Amino acid sequence: MVFIQEKEQAGISFWDARTTVLYLYIDDNDAVLEKASILGSTILYPKSTTSDYGFAIAEIEDSEGNRISISQIHRS
Fold first, then answer.
1. What SUPFAM superfamilies is this protein classified in (predicted)?
2. In angstroms, rounded to a whole number, what is the distance separating the alpha carbons of residues 71 and 32?
3. Among 19, 23, 49, 59, which is most exposed with the fewest C-beta within 10 angstroms?
4. CA dist list (Å): 35 to 32, 52, 62, 76
5. What does each C-alpha distance from 53 to 22, 42, 43 come to in angstroms?
6. How many domains does the chain have?
7. The domain containing residue 9 runs over which residues?
8. Which run of H or E residues covers position 73?
């Protein structure tokens, strides 16, 4: 999945056609962010939640410069 944005917006990442972002759906954003930080990843965008859509999202950059967006779907 590739999204191309024209400008940066608050709370979301900005990239262009030369940037690849890996999107992962996970069970626990907090646990993944903690482990990623311990292993040397940079948290680009901390977890933010959207009550309108029912998920939490964050973005990290791993030690090799790869960008990874992690989403946690809140199931009722």
1. Glyoxalase/Bleomycin resistance protein/Dihydroxybiphenyl dioxygenase
2. 10
3. 19
4. 5, 28, 11, 26
5. 20, 26, 22
6. 1
7. 1-76
8. strand 67-73
Whole-model pTM over 0.85: no
Cα 47 to its chain centre, rounded Å, is 8
3-state SS, 19-47, equals: CCEEEEEECCHHHHHHHHHHCCCEEEEEE
The tokens describing 15, both together, are 């990239």
Is the four-CA dihedral 6, 24, 21, 66 of positive or negative sign? positive
Q: Are 57 and 71 in contact (CB under 8 A)?
A: yes
pLDDT in tens, the chain (76 residues): 444 445 554 445 555 556 788 889 999 999 999 999 999 999 999 998 876 777 888 999 988 888 999 999 876 5
Burial class (CB in 10 A: 0-12, 13-18, 19+), 14: exposed
